Amino acid sequence: MQLFYLPDAGKSDTLSREESYHCVKVLRHKKGDKVSITDGIGNLYSCKIINDDQSSCKLKILSKEKTISKNHNIHLVISPTKSLEKMEWMVEKLSEIGVNKISFIYTENSERNKIRINRLEKKSISAMKQSNSFIKTTINDIISFDNFIRNLNDKSEKLIAHMGNNPLLKKIVRKNNNYTILVGPEGDFSKKEVSKANEKGFKGISLGENILRTETAGLLSCYSLIELLN
């Protein structure tokens, strides 16, 4: 299925410049063609092109074809690696497997405190369309660990992966719960940060005996959660 992304479908009827170019210029769709779009929140629509401008392609929604939802939400909170390409790869893969939200934090041992949020958004959109998931992974810009912990206020189960004598992830996961999981930099969280997370309700977990790269830990933790919850 050739899928296009139109957030706020129903309120908006025009594809973004990038989506328009891909639809009209690359795939050579023309006025009158039927195409499929998703709003990124679980809805699939059948549409007809009524203006095939390659920078502003206008659509008419014909029908809502499908609505999907998830039984659980997974929110990965992770410190970015020094390599932005590795972060892009991780976001792409996490979007493909259906992680709901990715937030970036900088910690005491982080190697960078800036990310290319626009690039990561594009990776998330592309992965959603490629996998036909209809639900886009939300990408949050980077903030400090302290700000994240201070402002976190939800009812999800909270986990933090760090070095120490912690139980394996599979030992504590319970079905029908939503999860927020913290993954630190390759230098790990500081003791002070772990303590602050514990005070906020985060439980320490282990991802196994091997020391993992940050992007590997992020992907493994989320994939394992999805498998355990399903």
The main sheet comes to:
6 strands, parallel
Mean pLDDT: 93
Low-confidence stretches: none
Strand order of the largest sheet: 7-6-5-9-8-10
The whole-angstrom Rg is 20 Å
Alpha-beta content class: alpha/beta
Strand fraction band? 25-35%
| Relative helix content | 25-40%
Count up the helices: 7
Shape annotation: elongated
CATH superfamily of the largest domain: SPOUT methyltransferase, trefoil knot domain
Q: How many structural units, i.e. domains?
A: 2
Q: Care to count the β-strands?
A: 10
CATH topology of the largest domain: the name is: Alpha/beta knot
What is the element string, with H for helices and E for strands? EHEEEEHEHEHEHEHEH
Please state the second-level CATH architecture of the largest domain. 3-Layer(aba) Sandwich
Determine the N-to-C terminus distance.
26 Å
- At the first level of CATH, what is the class of the largest domain? Alpha Beta
